[in-house]
Amino acid sequence: MRRVVAQGTFDLIHPGHIHYLEDAAAMGDELHVIVARRENVTHKEPPVLPNRQRRDVVAALDAVDKARVGHESDIFAPIEDIDPDVIALGFDQHHDDDAIEAELAERGVDCSVERASAREKRYDGELLSTGTIIDRILEQRG
Ligand SMILES: Cc1cc2nc3c(=O)[nH]c(=O)nc-3n(C[C@H](O)[C@H](O)[C@H](O)COP(=O)(O)O)c2cc1C
Ligand SMILES: Nc1ncnc2c1ncn2[C@@H]1O[C@H](COP(=O)(O)OP(=O)(O)OP(=O)(O)O)[C@@H](O)[C@H]1O
């Protein structure tokens, strides 16, 4: 049983998220998803939807076996608990692959770090990021 971990904010689900999670699921047999806590999303606008709602929507997706809200302060605590074979980073995630691998080795987790691919637009007007969906809402309803 190869366990894979994917993670992210997953505010307002769109086809880019589905692509990422399907790509990650294809790297193993069981996909676990860690949903970032609102207070830990500091590199962009924090999510609109609450932690538990984002987790519940992700957990309902076909590609996902289990989803959980992440740890408050130690992002490697859920990883130690899940003990995955692969961590699948998103194509545009700012995390440093080498730094993650070093921390995994330090904690004795035998796990590789891979990058998922990007989904490109399939038709005009397709919105493939939460940020662009929110911009569209503000344009049309703001
Ligand atoms: C291996 C790994 C484990 C993570 N675990 C947690 C966690 O337990 N709690 C949390 O709040 N964020 C966690 N994160 C961080 C969030 O997923 C991070 O904010 C993420 O990059 C969300 O940004 P994005 O949606 O823009 O990709 C983890 C990230 C990585 C790479
Ligand atoms: N178009 C896409 N193709 C492939 N993966 C994607 C795409 N959009 C998002 N992802 C992946 O989904 C995961 C969660 O992303 P996140 O929730 O930050 O979504 P986002 O829509 O990119 O958000 P924002 O617009 O706020 O940056 C990340 O790993 C990210 O790489």
Question: Which structural traits does this protein have?
Answer:
alpha/beta, five-stranded parallel beta sheet, Rossmann fold, 5 strands, 142 residues, binds adenosine-5'-triphosphate, binds flavin mononucleotide, 17% strand
Show the helix and strand layout.
Elements (H helix, E strand, L loop, with lengths): L2 E6 L6 H11 L4 E6 L15 H9 L6 E4 L7 H6 L3 E4 L7 H10 L5 E4 L14 H12 L1
Parallel strand pairs: 1-2, 1-4, 2-3, 4-5
The structure holds flavin mononucleotide and adenosine-5'-triphosphate.
GO molecular function, one term: FMN adenylyltransferase activity
Protein name: FAD synthase
EC number: 2.7.7.2
Written description of the protein model:
- This protein is 34% helix and 17% strand.
- The protein has 142 residues and is α/β, with parallel strands linked by helices.
- It has one domain: HUPs (Rossmann fold).
- It is globular, with a radius of gyration of 15 Å.
- The protein starts with a strand and ends with a helix.
- Adenosine-5'-triphosphate is lined by residues 8-11, 16-17, 19-20, 44, 90-93, 118-119, 128-131.
- Its cofactor is a divalent metal cation.
